[in-house]
Amino acid sequence: MSEQSRLMLVVSPLMESSPAFDRAAALAKASGAALHIVAFDYLEGLANAGMANEQAREQMRLGYVERHRQWLEDQARPLRKIGVPVTTEVVWVERPLQEILIHLREQPMTALIKALEHESTLSRLMFTPLDMHLLRECPVPLHFVSHVRHALPRRIVAAVDPFHRDGQYEGFNDRILREAAKLASTCNAELDVIYAHDLSSITANEFGFDNAAMFFSSSKAKELYDAQGDAFRELAERNGIPPERQHMIMGNPAKVLSSYADAYDIDMIVMGRVGHRGIGRLVGSTVEHLLYKMPCSIWVISPEILTDQ
């Protein structure tokens, strides 16, 4: 992170602290970044209070916003004392997604930090949570904080997939590794790199076979594995990752990454999201599958904006 970097921390409208406060403060302090703390408030009970006097309801709303602003200032004061430049803001808005995106356009940020809000599977099926919208649309690195063991990460893993056959995201893995290396240097953390490869996701006709059985019983499967290994090692080496920090593991990527993070007490996993311009959805959706399952926090890198096809 550069000396001029600025982090944005989105906090709960309920005036409650979370591990995201500690993580944001630690990252800001370690990197010399400024920190902007913003709450997007909306309490339905207060917004729809059954009062005949509209002015009285408005006064209650303004009073709540002011109390929240003062509460944020109380949280910011100790950080300023240790040299972290902190600004605070409270915005009353029912649907915060667009306001967050507007903030990111008008006030360029190095990263957006937010506590992960755990939603039930049923809830996620019925409506798309804010965190999922941010995962798909946030234009800057997005750090979902959960399961915090250390305010400043000590062990970081970068997850890459260097074997994109269409070349659409060429260079994206290098950017993931650069971001991860920068974070590790800032935090004085250990950095490992994982390529979780899953041959079952490969379509047989992509390699000229009529069925998967013929593909996996042939020498082509070994050729593919060797090609993947070569691509991974080349990627890691050109980004200065030593051999002992390179891990190529066969299996479903979501399961591999979750198990590795749990087994090795990983504090943060850095990974990329891959999407289609214009429809705002994930392809492969490894990040989506991991979001609510990882035993550590996630730092998500978005690809560069692609030109329209």
Topology:
Layout (H helix, E strand, L loop, with lengths): L5 E6 L7 H13 L2 E8 L2 H4 L6 H28 L4 E7 L3 H11 L4 E5 L5 H6 L3 H8 L4 E4 L9 E5 L12 H16 L2 E8 L14 H5 L2 H20 L7 E5 L2 H11 L4 E5 L13 H6 L5 E5 L8
Parallel strand pairs: 1-2, 1-4, 2-3, 4-5, 6-7, 6-9, 7-8, 9-10
Antiparallel strand pairs: 5-10
Descriptive overview:
This protein has 309 residues and is of the alpha/beta class. The chain folds into 2 domains: 1-115, Rossmann fold (3-Layer(aba) Sandwich); 149-309, Rossmann fold, CATH 3.40.50. It is 41% helix and 19% strand. The protein has a 10-stranded mixed β-sheet, sandwiched between helices. Strand 6 (155-159), helix 7 and strand 7 (190-197) form a beta-alpha-beta unit. The protein starts with 5 loop residues before the first strand and ends in an 8-residue tail after the last strand.
Task: Give the number of domains.
Answer: 2
Secondary-structure element series: EHEHHEHEHHEEHEHHEHEHE
Beta strand count: 10
Radius of gyration: 22 Å
- Model regions low in confidence, pLDDT < 50 over at least 5 residues: 203-210, 276-284
Task: Determine the N-to-C terminus distance.
Answer: 33 Å
Biggest sheet strand line-up: 3-2-1-4-5-10-9-6-7-8
Secondary-structure class: alpha/beta
Helical fraction equals 40-55%
Biggest sheet statistics: 10 strands, mixed
CATH superfamily of the largest domain: HUPs
Reported CATH architecture of the largest domain: 3-Layer(aba) Sandwich
CATH topology of the largest domain: Rossmann fold
Strand content: 15-25%
**Which geometry do the CA atoms define?**
elongated
